[in-house]
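User: My notes are a mess, but here's the protein and 2-acetamido-2-deoxy-beta-D-glucopyranose's SMILES. Can you give me a structure?
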Amino acid sequence: MANFSFLNLLFIVLFSTAAVEVAVVASTPAATVKGAYYPSWVSSSFPPSSIETSLFTHILYAFLSPSNSTYKFEVSDSTAPLLSNFTASLRRKNPPVKTLISIGGASDGPTLFATIASSASTRKLFIDSSIEVARRYGFDGLDLDWEMPENPKQMTDLGLLFQEWRSAIQREAQATARPPLLLTAAVYFAVDFFLSGTYRMYPVASINQNLDWINAMCYDYHGSWDTSATGAQAAFFDPNSNISSNYGLRSWIKAGLQRKKLVMGLPLYGRTWKLKDPNVHGIGAPAVGLGPGDDGVLIYSQVETFNKENNATVKYDATTVSTYSFQGTSWVGYDGVVSTATKVRLARALGLRGYFFWALSYDKEWKISTQASRAWIYGK
Ligand SMILES: *[C@@H]1O[C@H](CO)[C@@H](O)[C@H](O)[C@H]1NC(C)=O
Ligand SMILES: *[C@@H]1O[C@H](CO)[C@@H](O)[C@H](O)[C@H]1NC(C)=O
Ligand SMILES: *[C@@H]1O[C@H](CO)[C@@H](O)[C@H](O)[C@H]1NC(C)=O
Ligand SMILES: *[C@@H]1O[C@H](CO)[C@@H](O)[C@H](O)[C@H]1NC(C)=O
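Assistant: No problem, the inputs look usable. Here's the predicted complex:
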């Protein structure tokens, strides 16, 4: 049985390699993205030089924000050396990886970018400054993490921002005879905000035309905002609702996004609940509050510690493609080795460009990042 599957796999690998080589002749396929956001606040305990670059293709520096009065980047004296060190360290690694500045993040809130995107003059101030900063510190690209556009007007403005940003990037590349900067964005797991009161949809045509790819945040589906039941916070499938990566990723494709512009997010952290009854411990089990961790969040390395210290029971759930563990009334939903590798294979089978992690330093000795990278190679 084991031998049979291995030969079968080998055949598929050899066969698909041949198919890919034929395709290369026709047109160069978009290179795989194995991305990860680097939380810059860990730089003293987790310096860029310690990143295992063989597991990634792109590392995003999180985060840099424009000024809320000039809309330009005013890099402080304490941040400048971090940026220089980040790009210099990663360029010197073997293999080197590409670096992007991720702009914004959840803590910036939605208003700053709504203001910037709302007029041609503020868009220009922001765009020109972003390109200047990326070049000054040696980055290969820029990523916008506006969480989240709040209405249809802001989505239209976002489309204009991407269009003018791409034009400016092309002009700069031509003027300086350098490869153009990459341009990406972190976005909601689905193309539209079908769960919210104010319906709005991302500007897919502008994204196809102007971005290299988008990073779909396929996580935070369940969490501290609902303590009534446990949940798979990054379920790939959900038989009972549309709050799943399968639904979200397919909604992007259905809306016309090119599959090679779509990169799936993977969480390197879990979310915890306090069970109502320790004997009822499945996904969706009744809960009465949050479990261990800050606001019910444990990063992956803490989940491993929790499991070990408490001799927790660990279960893989094939229905949702997720992992959970529990001991007594403490319950943790997360992605372990098996669920991560399975999701990566599913993303590859969907024809996506790749995957990314939030966040790089949350892994335990590169365990999950390694399995994800292997699963992509042996995908299908
Ligand atoms: C603008 O930024 C400054 C400095 O970060 C902050 O103190 C201030 O509250 C911000 N103003 C608004 C309107 O967000
Ligand atoms: C980055 O900073 C660290 C110390 O924080 C230093 O050891 C290293 O040499 C620096 N790397 C580069 C490329 O400047
Ligand atoms: C999921 O979305 C589809 C449309 O995309 C809709 O027809 C269906 O009713 C939704 N299912 C649930 C459980 O909300
Ligand atoms: C850990 O749990 C298993 C059952 O899940 C049990 O057999 C074992 O004795 C436990 N070990 C300790 C050290 O509590």
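The pocket of 2-acetamido-2-deoxy-beta-D-glucopyranose (ligand 3) is lined by residues 241-242 (CB under 6 Å).
User: Great, I'll file this with my notes.
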